[in-house]
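Sequence in, structure out. First:
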Amino acid sequence: MKLTYFIALTGLVCAALSGCVPNAPFPPEVMEKVSPTFHFEAWRDAGPSNESGKSDAGIKVMLGGRIVQVTKNGKGMVIVAEQLPIVSNPVYGPAEGEGKRPGDHEFALLYEGALEALDLMKGNRFIIVGTTTSRRPVLVNGIPKTEPFIIADCIHVWQTGGAEIAEFKEDAGGGYSPLPETTYCVAKK
């Protein structure tokens, strides 16, 4: 009797604790060495800090955003995105927040793998883990721009089509459908 009670209690404690942990979409090994103090605006606004005229690079970061545009090049998919803050409550993922944020929040990333067409649609939300590089030229709606750039190791995409992730409900019988989401990681070389 006591063993059954202990097993049931242990199961309840584990279930309660797992409900408090955010649903990080990436495996723990991907999250190793991610900078806990990375500040997007400081990276975006950083001028060249060396004689070669290139901004500092090589920081492993996790960023959230919304897809603005996707183009394919010889190495993979170049995604131009608007950076959005990552929230953990009420749901895990990037969110718009209250009101319009001042300034430019665009950046570009290269994912050196294949992604499904539905995951690449404009407006979809995503979180990436990758390494910063110097600014790179990209075409945004036919206009050349130089954007802060990241080489992505992994990307987690929610097929939101521009809506907030929190607007999707997964309750059975609630009249809503579950939000499709997928995680992709580049194979290590």
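Second:
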Amino acid sequence: MTLLILVVDDEPDIEPLFRQQFRRDLREGRFIMQFAQSAPEALGLIGEAREVTLILILSDINMPGMSGLEMLPKAKAARPDVPIIMITAYGDAETKAKALEGGAEALFTKPIDFGALRSEIDTRVERAA
């Protein structure tokens, strides 16, 4: 069984940052990560994730075109079984409330606390095992 984590962020430096932070997990095949630079691209990947087990979606909120908050209900409708964690540079109470009301499990602020994120990912991997 291949476990997939989908990371959605329009910033090009996010992919190498995540690959560096989770290099051991990726090298050992504990899970794989796929990256989308827009919400529409992510929705397409969510729909195509058939030969893998999608265990978590991490999405930035502020993206051009469709925001992460606009993508959230569409992603939840397509995959209600997959938890979604929103990521933002603006961790104010209103943004957090909108994310949680929209179905997000949590809201992480940038810079990302990779220790806390690793804990979330470990929980998802254990549940899928």
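Remark: Residues 2 and 50 are 11 Å apart (CA to CA).
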